[in-house]
């Protein structure tokens, strides 16, 4: 087992792999990562599935059968992806049984529904029913239209991974949606202890967007702020988390068996090669959080990552000062977060189109 990854896990950070494929499942690679690399969860998205389906033959027989049965592309995608997630859930079931919150596998609602509340709710319920595993998480984007869908899903007893969170303001709305869902679930007589949730706060894209603006401004003061905003943003989010999950409202739900919605640091692969490749892991170590990493980041941390203790708690004031400096040099932070969410939704939709086209190609090959 990697000593560095074990040290990260021992610091209270749950290590989730941001990747899944049938090859990982069937060759035993996923089980090996759980056993040897401290991996205790998995996240997926359409791009991950598109890569898995296009780069291997392990889906071919199922695609041929589905095509022969008259399935359309949406049906094929649904069956392929929910099968993989179900099987990954089974591999991680022992982790789920032995820990309070880990052993989870996430699958995303169709991204084209990001601004469609009823459609998102229907998609979440269909995925939850199809996967049919208590350690699954349904990914719902934190768009304005996604917020009521989060409440409805949680209120129905569905465990949710809220994704595409960029700002502390939106994160507060996500936590409110979660608590509202728990209150609805309690009123419906659902056992709150069965519901789990994480809130995926995106990290690296914040630096990418803000660094570009700082470089456009070009002053020495502005350039000196590059590479600092993403971590500061996450630290401000964590302070909001601490506030909400110590409130009287939360305590009432906790008394009924509810679980904390843990912060999950997402998009932790470093985009700028000038920055340390483990930056968004090392600088965001804090207990009772999740860090979901692409395999490249996981391997980098296993090789040379450092755990320097809690890097988040009590650093909100320092983070706010950094944000004040960004505003002072001319960075419009409100616009930054609007752009990031809009681009995030567009990337999600493009990712879905990529998956659809990949599967259409596989279906055409199966039919020929």
Descriptive overview:
One of its GO terms (molecular function) is transaldolase activity. Its main location: cytoplasm. The structure is a single chain. With 368 residues, this protein is an alpha/beta fold. It has one domain: Aldolase class I (TIM Barrel, Alpha-Beta Barrel). Strands 1-2-3-4-5-6-7-8 form an 8-stranded parallel β-barrel, surrounded by 10 helices. Helix 9 links the parallel strand 5 and strand 6. Helix 4 packs parallel to helix 17 and helix 7 runs parallel beside helix 8.
Helix content: 55-70%
Oligomer designation? single chain
Number of strands: 8
Sum up the overall morphology in one term.
Answer: globular
Please give the largest β-sheet: 8 strands, parallel, barrel
Give the C-level CATH assignment: Alpha Beta
Instruction: Give the number of domains.
Output: 1
Strand content: 5-15%
**The CATH topology:** TIM Barrel
Structural class determined from secondary elements: alpha/beta
Mean pLDDT: 97
Q: Radius of gyration, rounded?
A: 20 Å
Count of DSSP H/I helices? 17
Provide the succession of SSEs: HEHHEHHHEHEHEHEHHHHEHEHHH
Q: Can you give keywords for this protein?
A:
single chain, 368 residues, alpha/beta, TIM Barrel, eight-stranded parallel beta barrel, 58% helix, globular, pentose shunt, schiff base, cytoplasm, Aldolase_TIM, Transaldolase
Question: How would you summarize the topology of this molecule?
Answer:
Layout: H1 3-10, E1 13-17, H2 22-27, H3 29-36, E2 39-42, H4 46-54, H5 60-68, H6 73-98, E3 104-108, H7 117-131, E4 136-141, H8 146-155, E5 160-165, H9 168-187, E6 197-202, H10 204-217, H11 220-223, H12 229-244, H13 248-254, E7 262-266, H14 279-282, E8 289-293, H15 295-304, H16 316-328, H17 333-367
Parallel strand pairs: 1-2, 1-8, 2-3, 3-4, 4-5, 5-6, 6-7, 7-8
Helix pairs in contact: 4-17, 5-17, 6-17, 7-8, 8-9, 9-12, 10-12, 10-17, 12-16
């Amino acid at each position: 087992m990697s000593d560095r990854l074990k040290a990260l896990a021992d610091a209270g950070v749950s290590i989730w792999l941001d990747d899944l494929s049938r090859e990982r499942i069937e060759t035993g690679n996923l089980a090996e990562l759980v056993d040897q690399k401290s991996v205790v969860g998995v996240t997926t998205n359409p791009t991950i599935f598109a890569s898995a389906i296009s780069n291997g033959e392990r889906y071919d027989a199922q695609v041929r059968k589905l095509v022969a049965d008259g399935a359309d592309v949406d049906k094929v995608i649904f069956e392929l992806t929910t099968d993989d997630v179900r099987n990954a859930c089974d591999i991680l079931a022992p982790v789920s049984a032995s820990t309070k919150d880990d052993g989870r596998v996430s699958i995303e609602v169709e991204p084209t529904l990001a601004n469609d509340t009823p459609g998102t709710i229907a998609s979440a319920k269909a995925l939850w029913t199809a996967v049919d595993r208590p350690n699954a998480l349904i990914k719902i984007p934190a768009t304005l239209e996604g917020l009521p869908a989060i409440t409805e899903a949680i209120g129905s007893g569905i465990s949710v991974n809220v994704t595409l969170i960029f700002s502390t303001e939106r994160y507060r709305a996500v936590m409110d949606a979660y608590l509202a869902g728990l209150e609805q679930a309690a009123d419906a007589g659902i056992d709150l202890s069965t519901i789990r949730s994480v809130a995926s706060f995106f990290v690296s894209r914040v630096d990418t967007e803000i660094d570009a603006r700082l470089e456009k401004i070009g002053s020495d003061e502005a350039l000196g702020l590059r590479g600092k905003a993403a971590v500061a943003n996450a630290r401000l989010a964590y302070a909001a988390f601490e506030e909400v999950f110590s409130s009287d409202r939360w305590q009432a739900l906790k008394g009924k068996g509810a679980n904390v919605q843990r912060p999950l640091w997402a998009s932790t692969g470093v985009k700028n090669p000038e920055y340390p490749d483990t930056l968004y892991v090392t600088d965001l170590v804090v207990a009772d959080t999740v860090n979901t990493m692409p395999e490249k980041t996981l391997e980098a941390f296993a090789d040379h990552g450092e755990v320097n203790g809690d890097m988040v708690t009590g650093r909100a004031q320092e983070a706010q000062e950094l944000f004040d400096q960004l505003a002072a040099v001319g960075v419009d932070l409100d616009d930054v977060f609007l752009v990031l969410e809009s681009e995030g939704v567009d990337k999600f939709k493009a990712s879905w189109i990529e998956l659809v086209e990949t599967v259409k190609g596989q279906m055409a090959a199966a039919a020929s």
